[in-house]
Design goal:
With 121 residues, the protein is α/β, with parallel strands linked by helices. It contains 4 helices and 4 strands, in the order ααββαβαβ.
Length: 121
């Protein structure tokens, strides 16, 4: 009898826990909604999307990080990123057309952001 109650307890937990998590807004399959992008960053996101670069937003909306990993990433794109004052992390790969001078200018424009070239494996 005791083992049957334990099995029932485990079944109830397995069935009710996902219902509880969904009701509380927690779900493994859905991301939390993010805030609206600031107007000055919408054009940047469109440019990032058009060249296949990756990026993420903070919960409040502004861009938080970017990964520049395509040939379409160049100095002109870095110039646009300078307006994204909330960027915390900018990483780029050797497969881009970004120059060292543009990286230095970006670091000066966004002194609190971590700008890093990813090492190739």
């Amino acid at each position: 009898m005791k083992t049957q109650l334990m099995k029932l307890k485990h079944i109830l937990i397995a069935v009710l826990l996902p219902v509880f998590l969904v009701a509380c807004g927690e779900s493994d399959s859905e991301e939390a909604p993010q805030g609206e992008l600031p107007a000055n960053e919408k054009a940047v996101v469109e440019a990032l999307d058009s060249i296949g670069a990756q990026y993420g937003q903070s919960d409040e909306g502004p861009l938080d990080w970017v990964l520049l990993n395509t040939e379409g990433c160049d100095d002109a794109l870095l110039e646009k990123l300078k307006g994204c004052k909330n960027l915390k992390t900018i990483r780029y790969t050797s497969g881009t057309k970004i120059t060292a001078g543009a990286i230095d200018a970006l670091k000066n424009a966004l002194p609190n952001a971590e700008v890093e070239k990813l090492k190739e494996e």
